[in-house]
Amino acid sequence: MDLQAIKNKFSALFGDEFSVYTSPGRVNLIGEHTDYNGGFVFPGAIDKGIFACIRLNGTKTVRAYSIDNEDYCEFGLNEEDLPEQHWAKYLFGVCREIEKRGYTIGGFDTVFAGNVPIGAGMSSSAAVESTYAYALNELFNLGIDKFELARIGQMTEHHYVGVKCGIMDQFASLFGKAGNLMRLNCATMEFEYFPFDPKGYKVVLLDTLVKHSLASSAYNKRRESCENACAHIAAKYPEVKYLSDATQDMLDEVRPDISGEDYLRASYVIGEKQRVLDVCDALGKGDYETVGKCMYGTHFGMSKLYEVSCEELDYLNDLAKECGVTGSRVMGGGFGGCTINLVKEDLYDNFIKTAKEKFNAKFGHEPKVYDVVISDGARRL
Ligand code: GLA
Fold first, then answer.
1. Ligand 1 atom 9 nearest Cα
2. Phi, psi dihedral angles at 186 (to 5 degrees)
3. What's the gap in Å between 121 CA and the centre of ligand 1?
4. Per the residue annotation, which of 2, 68, 71, 169 is the catalytic one?
5. Nearest CA owner, ligand 1 atom 2
């Protein structure tokens, strides 16, 4: 990703006056599929993001060029103007969601590109949404707070992309702070920054490069299972608003009334809530062994109970164990993408070498390796 190339393209298409905005992708140390269940997540923004040149054009038309798709699109700001191109739906959705909240925006010209790997579980789409939500809020002086900007991105996914996602990715992209992870309570939206600098360890992502074409419908199905289990529990325990409020005992009580599948999904979510709290506690004490154990616990749950892993991710997780990696698990929504690994510095080289060789021997290509740098959230450059 070359910022100068974006600027040059903008100048060639629309002229020399523009502002530049960026928003990052994210990692998540622990707390997966908990956000839409009112639980905790523990993400941080990364040093990879979306970069956009933007200028208001005084019309009611948006004119956009995506460098990564080598594709141009023009659309109006009314509901019936939904563009056909998938990438443009994110921009359109953000505009619509802003207007649905009673704000008025006008047209703009924009060129954008990014370096968040797509489909790797690092939230490239949230980075696009956050970039435009943040930029339009500033350029049109709308005064929308960052929580609402995050919801605008999330509702773009729900209404224009078809993924019933939680709030984690957009939140992380907007609120990220260099060197800090954030523990967010998704039921109350209270959050806390946690300085994250595990001395003697590295955090590295290994990307299987597997992309599941049905990931969004499978994701939505997981969410339905959770909501169904929660509704059964709430019928007996009205204080349970979200699945994360429930205990394993409550779930066991409604076991006969729900499907075996829903039961497994819900057990995972309830277990994951405790793991996030345990990790925060352990981090406070510098106890990375416990952090790592919880990460492996999450992988097991995501693979065997929530069933959002795949052969390649499970293989990387096994290799991590073999190589003495402190913690490893599938990151993000799952169905492909990356593992996140917490590895002692002196074991790092051997782990990466072994993972590349063995993965290549089994699947015919090496995993991609990304070192994680925890960085700032959405901003104007
Ligand atoms: C995707 C969604 C998030 C979250 C994760 C799983 O990234 O966009 O809201 O649910 O999956 O933790």
1. 166
2. -75, -10
3. 8
4. 169
5. 165
Sequence-distant contacts of 249-253: CB under 8 A, at least 24 apart:
none
Q: Model pTM? A: 0.96
List, in order of start, the domains of the chain with CATH numbers: 3-195 (3.30.230.10), 201-371 (3.30.70.890)
**What is residue 3's three-state secondary structure?**
helix
d(CA 257, CA 292): 35
- Ligand 1 site residues, Cβ closer than 6 angstroms: 32-33, 35-36, 123, 165-166, 168-169, 332-333
Ligand 1 binding pocket mutation candidate from 46, 128, 169, 189 (most atoms within 8 A of CB): 169
262 is catalytic: no
Counting ligand 1 atoms within 8 A of each CB, the residue from 26, 154, 168, 340 with the most, and so the one to mutate, is 168
Token code pair at residue 235 = 């019928």
CA of 170 to the centre of ligand 1 (A): 10
Which of 183, 184, 187 is closest to 196 using CA atoms?
183
pLDDT of the chain along its 381 residues, tens only? 689 999 999 999 999 999 999 999 999 999 999 999 999 999 999 999 999 999 999 999 999 999 999 999 999 999 999 999 999 999 999 999 999 999 999 999 999 999 998 888 899 999 999 999 999 999 999 999 999 999 999 999 999 999 999 999 999 999 999 999 999 999 999 999 999 999 999 999 999 999 876 678 999 999 999 999 999 999 999 999 999 999 999 999 999 999 999 999 999 999 999 999 999 999 989 999 999 999 999 999 999 999 999 999 999 999 999 999 999 999 999 999 999 999 999 999 999 999 999 999 999 999 999 999 999 999 999
Residue nearest to atom 1 of ligand 1 (CA): 333
Give the span between the Cα atoms of 9 and 115, in whole angstroms. Answer: 17
**Token digits of residue 2:** 């070359």
Distance 32 CA to ligand 1 centre (A): 7
Residue type, 38: G
Q: Which atom of ligand 1 is nearest to the CA of 126?
A: 8
